[in-house]
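Lab channel / #folding
Pinned by the channel admin:
"Please post every new chain as: sequence first, then the structure tokens as a reply. Keep commentary short and put observations after the output so the thread stays searchable."

First post following the new format, from NK:
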Amino acid sequence: MKHYDKLHTKIMDKLKVEPNLDESGITIFIKNNGAVIFKGKVKSYPEKYIAEEVAKKIENIKVVVNQLEVDLTATYKRSDAYIVQSAMNALRWNIFVTAEDIKVTVENGHLILTGEVEYYFQKERAKKAVSYITGITNITNNIIVTSNTPPANIKEDFIKEFERNARIYTNNIEADVNINAATLQARGRNLNEAEEAKIAAWFTPVVTTVNDLLTIGL
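Reply from TO:
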């Protein structure tokens, strides 16, 4: 029990020092399988995102279940039409995606992305582009990745991109790719490092599937 108490305190201490997050409405539950569950309310979608990212950087947390509800204050509320227009502008300004390939719909602040892109990293870039728009309560990313034709030197290209993109100790992680499917093995020091490895794999243009065999812990 002491271990969980210390972990709870550590998470709360990290949340308290985040300048763009009010942690007062957040309740943390810790399970014995290494899962952390966030419940409660925050005032904006970015706060929900920040809380999850903070937890991922703490060692031995294996899963973060983010059930925080975004309860917009009057300051942050915007019309659905405003959010749609802002999202389309954000996509047009993003060099990684073609805005014409993506459709944005919003219902009561819930933003939904649909459409098709060639690579998975474009799908993630599209979501990131709209994540900090004022007035959003949630984001659903239903964009479809269509690429299925690997280049001749797929493995070599993937390894180079993975090592260049990964903000981790890459000697801890083994990566391989076969017909657009990347496989990651070994151990990450924390959930954030494991997430960085997966992001690095996903952001490699040739990859459309990631097989995650990573474990967490020293």
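NK: The CA atoms of residues 155 and 177 lie 6 Å apart.
TO: also worth noting, The mean pLDDT is 79.
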